[in-house]
Amino acid sequence: MLAVEASALTASLSLAEQAAIRAVLVSHPHFDHCKDLPGLAYNGPWEQPIEVVGSAGTHAVLRRTLFDPSLWLPFFDFPPAAPRLAYREARAHEPLTVAGYRVVPVPSDHYAPAELPVLTGQAAPTRDPSVALGFFIACGDASLYYTGDTGPGFAAALGDLRPDVLVTEVGLPNAQRHRVSELRHLTPADLQAELEILGARGGPAQGAPARVLAVHLAPHSEAAIRAELVEVARATGAAIEVATEGQRLTVTAP
Ligand SMILES: [Zn+2]
Ligand SMILES: [Zn+2]
After folding, report:
1. How many angstroms separate the alpha carbon of residue 205 from the centre of ligand 2?
2. Do 155 and 251 fall within a single domain?
3. 240, 232 in Cβ contact below 8 A?
4. What distance in angstroms lies between residue 111's CA and the mean position of ligand 2's atoms?
5. Ligand nearest to the backbone CA of 112
6. Domain range for 248
7. What is the pLDDT of residues 34-57, one digit of tens each?
């Protein structure tokens, strides 16, 4: 089984389901995307390695934070004979086969390694464009694109890739669009622009995703984002829904 992010794996999956995970794609090292990796690794079985697939920047942060030996067992090096977590580097636009799926990492504009001065207004954002990734995941002719966290630009970064299903973050309401350049999340208005690029040649058969699932809605602004997404669906004709916990999604080729 392939997991996308480790946001809620231990909270939402049984131990047997966790034991079936062979690989985890981690988009970037923000806490909300990797916080269940330590528990997943600990729950075992330890003799069965899990691939952790992400950028070199993501791996470096995980090692020195969640898997620092002063905080938790350093599962990238432990047990010494056969570490529980096996890091596998993902590089933008270099396809990988992971747990039987074809995975194409796509660069995303999101991660700033030193954000505190930015958040406190003391410095401008200095993003590291090599850290955050989205993942195009294909099995046979069916495909999905998961944006991870991203500012505007993911549709262009996808190049010729056209997913059947888009799972996209929509982190901010339109009223906070002025904060997009600082926080690098999408508003519904930004998503509309991205969908217009993906579907510039017409409907699903020409490149627009058949289905769009919105995730990562800021809880404090969820009602506003939901209302604005209804307007985006109306304007673009896209089938947009807000994903729910426990939702099952079947991806099929057109
Ligand atoms: Zn983030
Ligand atoms: Zn996030």
Report:
1. 31
2. yes
3. yes
4. 10
5. 1
6. 140-254
7. 999 999 999 999 999 999 999 999
